[in-house]
Amino acid sequence: MTAGLRERASRVLLANWQGQSTVPAADLYPHQWSWDSAFIAVGLRHVSPRRAQRELESLFGAQWPDGRVPHIVFDRATPAGAYFPGADFWRSAAVTGVRHPATSGLVQPPVHAIAAWETFRADPELARRRGFLARLYPRLVAWHRYLTGRRALGTGGLVSIVHPWESGMDNSPAWDGPLSRVEPLPAGSFRRADLAHAVAGERPTDTDYGRYVRLAADYRDHGYADGPAIPAFAVQDPLTNALLAAAEAALADIAAEVGADPAPHHAELKRLREAMVEWLFDEGDGLLHARDVHTGQSLRAGSVAGLVPLVVPGLPVADALVRTAVGDRFRIGETGLPPSYDRTDALFDTSRYWRGPAWFNIGWLLWRGLRLHGATGVADTVRAALVRAAARAGFREYLDPLTGHGRGARDFSWSAAVTLDLLDSGKG
């Protein structure tokens, strides 16, 4: 079963490869997505380390002058109407210039340094010969400094996201409160390409999508400026900050490899770790919660994003997060498939986008974090459940966390990629 599953996962990545990068899914997501490419590189390194390097190099080739890594890089050969909002909506050339690749103006969680380091480790000789890390390191540093500089909008020096799409967990109930302040655009004023490829009951509602489009249009119309005016939606997200902290640890390793000083990255890891615990951790329920920059209030919600900080080395509240992970709200010690939202909450939905379904990439992050903090038994349960789900349901975009039934797009690249990495971790 393992050999066959590895071959199937490899075929998905090879089929979705576009010459320089990989699409998440050919029909629903026909361009390059930022954090998708990072997870894809982690799996692609087991198939072709050279392609894994090119995946990240291609993405960072579209980096903006201010250091941001855009959440979508558009393929010019793809028809303009294949995805909405497309390149014409974002008008990135007004900021980056007409010779720059067409992109969105939003960002996604900064998992890229972790992917770069893992990609390097797959074939250090090839990476050194190609100058992979030496070229990517200053771009990664600029990316992190954009986040900790331009996006430090609230107290505590934590990074803020300015759109739910930037969280990667677009439709999470955690964003319902801040989004309620945003007047949605009428459904007839935009075209939803996603509903041509996915079941409406598994996707965001038209009202929520109207809010997403308004937020994106407002950000665009203000020249993608991050300050001093704070956008209508501004949230300190635990997943984004946790991945940035973990990525700083990876940057320290990369710095040492390329002959730079790792000390600033260790210091930034420590600063972010302490700020997350001080400002986002709730001792009462054993989770980190997002914080609304406008109100200063904790967005108390049962999002799995509050467990993702397990990926941060030396996290002092890791034991509390493990207890929450195996408790009634997530029960991953029993089922292994981490739901994206609290199973005991009335808002929990097993099939709607980020409001309950399990995702392969989040499972992979939790598997790493659980192992990092010594919860190897629970980590093994998560790994086994994800591999079993891939074998039964295929490489679906997400899964019913109770039954393992596949939802969303088929032949989804990061699902195949992290499955490859999980299979490789079980060798021997």
Please outline the helices and strands.
Blueprint: H1 2-16, E1 32-33, H2 34-44, H3 49-60, E2 72-73, H4 87-90, H5 93-96, H6 112-122, H7 124-130, H8 132-150, E3 160-161, H9 176-179, H10 206-221, E4 235-236, H11 238-258, H12 263-280, E5 281-282, E6 287-288, E7 290-292, E8 298-299, H13 318-326, H14 360-372, H15 376-393, E9 398-399, E10 406-407, H16 413-425
Antiparallel strand pairs: 1-2, 3-4, 4-7, 5-6, 7-8, 9-10
Helix pairs in contact: 1-16, 2-3, 2-6, 2-16, 3-6, 3-8, 6-7, 6-8, 6-11, 8-11, 11-12, 14-15, 15-16
Structural commentary:
Keywords: Glycosidase, Hydrolase. Residues 29-415 form the Mannosylglycerate hydrolase MGH1-like glycoside hydrolase domain. This is Mannosylglycerate hydrolase MGH1-like glycoside hydrolase domain-containing protein. GO terms for molecular function: Glc3Man9GlcNAc2 oligosaccharide glucosidase activity. The protein is mainly α. The protein is 46% helix and 5% strand. It has helices at residues 2-16, 34-44, 49-60, 87-90, 93-96, 112-122, 124-130, 132-150, 176-179, 206-221, 238-258, 263-280, 318-326, 360-372, 376-393, 413-425, and strands at residues 32-33, 72-73, 160-161, 235-236, 281-282, 287-288, 290-292, 298-299, 398-399, 406-407. It has a 4-stranded antiparallel sheet.
